[in-house]
Amino acid sequence: RCLQKVFTLVLAVEKFKKMTNATFKDSDLLGFNHMIEEAITRISYDHSTRSNSSYRFWKSESRKVRDYEDKCLVLSPSSKLIALFLQTTEQEVTLDIRHYRTFSGDYQPVVLGIRGKNMFLSCTRPHANPELQVEEWNNNLNDISSATKQLRFVFFKKVSDMGSTFEFESANHRGWYISTSKKNRQTVEMEVKEKNRITVFTVSM
């Protein structure tokens, strides 16, 4: 709409120049030029604003999440998530799944925290491939912009058609998913879906 106004304004200026009999200098158009520049700047700003997604906190739920083979998630002393089979669930972590609202996409943006701790899962790329980290974070995560470094905490929860299973794709590095090894007692890592790892999770009953 703004671009259409600029085009209309330019046509009006050209028509006015042709219709007037007086000498019409370029300096007389400074006001028009200023209006055109402002409109173009506004277009660029609006486009930039729309290109950055924003996520606003909506609600949270606490769940014990397991991979599709029923391996539990345990937090190691070195703050790494380990997937393993447990006979008792005392060590199993409970995830604080924070849901966010967004104005774009048909996915469910979530932030995954460790319940009872100021620790959150994040996806960063310190080396060649994205890596899953468990970070201590004491600042506010109610509003997250894709233009900030806090995007590393956001994952897209992709629920299956049946609704009983889901995957977590990194919002910071699209195409990379939280995954577990098919072997027991291995770290939870980021991986692309084509690799021989488990990316499907369920909620523990």
Automatic annotation (TrEMBL):
Matches recorded under InterPro entries: IL-1_fam (IPR000975), IL1/FGF (IPR008996)
What biological process terms from GO does the record include?
Answer: cellular response to lipopolysaccharide; cytokine-mediated signaling pathway; fever generation; immune response; positive regulation of cell division; positive regulation of gene expression
* Pfam families per UniProt: IL1
* Alphabetical keyword list: Cytokine, Cytoplasm, Inflammatory response, Lysosome, Mitogen, Pyrogen, Secreted
A Gene Ontology cellular component where this protein is annotated is:
extracellular space
Q: Where in the cell is it found?
A: Cytoplasm, Cytosol; Lysosome; Secreted, Extracellular exosome
> GO: which molecular function terms?
cytokine activity; interleukin-1 receptor binding
Family the entry assigns: Belongs to the IL-1 family.
- The protein here is known as Interleukin-1
Where does this protein come from, organism-wise?
A: Callorhinchus milii (Ghost shark)
